[in-house]
Every structure is written in structure tokens, then in C-alpha cells.
């Protein structure tokens, strides 16, 4: 992901000294009951700049939400869930990493 055209384009649009925070979302429908009548999409988030060896570790991802599987509701729920990310992608967010303050610009990089 570091050497992709997407990454280069994003880096050109953020201030000098700031960092790209690529967001990866993934979801797969799962059954919620034993009869198979109720299903939901658990949506997990992971950062794209985490080393590949850590991607499948428990502490490398977070469950954001369970959203409905009905197509129309799925996309509405996904849009509502991503709305706060939009303002952060314009203004950035300051976070402490290893004791030092860094300026990150989160961008949705991939939905799997």
C-alpha cells in the first residue's frame, strides 16, 4: 500500500509533516441465530500502515458495528458510520505515538 498511486496522491494533498492514516474496513455477513433467520454484517476496522505480519492479530483490528444485511440499510448504515471520517480527512487528527504528537489524516483506503 505504501508504494501505490493512491498513497502518493493522498500524500500530495496533506500538509508537510503530516502522516497518512489509511483505514481498511472489512465485513462479511454472519448468522445471529441457530435457525439462519437473522444475519448481520460485523464491520471491522484496521489501519493500512500496520505491518502485514500483525494484520490478523486480535489487537490490530476493532469491531466498529453490526449493520443490517438488507442492501439499502447496509449502505445507509455504512454511510452514517463513515460520516465522522470525512471531517477528519480534511482537518486531520493529532495523536500521540510512542510519546510524540503526530498529525494524521485518515482516509478510507479499502473496503473488503
How would you describe this protein?
With 112 residues, this protein is an alpha+beta fold. It has one domain (5-111). It is 26% helix and 40% strand. The chain is built from two helices and six strands. The protein has helices at 5-12, 71-91, and strands spanning 19-27, 30-31, 39-47, 61-68, 93-97, 100-111. Strands 1, 2, 3, 4, 5 and 6 form a six-stranded mixed β-sheet that branches. The longest helix has 21 residues, at 71-91. The radius of gyration is 16 Å and the shape is elongated. The two termini are 15 Å apart. The mean pLDDT is 87.
The stretches of 5 or more residues where confidence is low (pLDDT under 50) are none
- Report the radius of gyration as a whole number of Å: 16 Å
Biggest pleated sheet: 6 strands, mixed
- Overall shape: it is elongated
* Contiguous helical run count: 2
Q: Number of DSSP strands?
A: 6
- What is the helix fraction of residues, given as a range? 25-40%
* N/C terminus separation: 15 Å
Residue share in β-strands = 35-45%
SSE order, one letter for each helix or strand: HEEEEHEE
Task: State the secondary-structure class.
Answer: alpha+beta
Number of domains: 1
Amino acid at each position: 500500500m505504501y508504494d501505490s498511486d493512491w498513497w502518493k496522491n493522498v500524500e500530495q494533498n496533506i500538509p508537510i509533516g503530516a502522516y497518512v492514516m489509511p483505514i481498511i474496513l472489512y465485513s462479511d455477513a454472519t448468522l445471529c441465530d441457530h435457525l439462519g433467520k437473522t444475519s448481520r454484517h460485523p464491520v471491522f476496522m484496521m489501519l493500512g500502515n500496520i505491518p502485514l505480519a500483525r494484520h490478523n492479530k486480535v489487537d490490530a483490528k476493532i469491531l466498529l458495528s453490526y449493520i443490517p444485511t438488507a442492501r439499502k440499510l447496509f449502505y445507509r448504515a455504512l454511510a452514517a458510520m463513515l460520516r465522522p471520517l470525512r471531517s477528519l480527512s480534511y482537518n486531520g487528527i493529532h495523536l500521540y505515538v510512542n510519546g510524540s504528537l503526530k498529525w494524521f489524516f485518515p482516509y478510507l483506503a479499502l473496503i473488503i
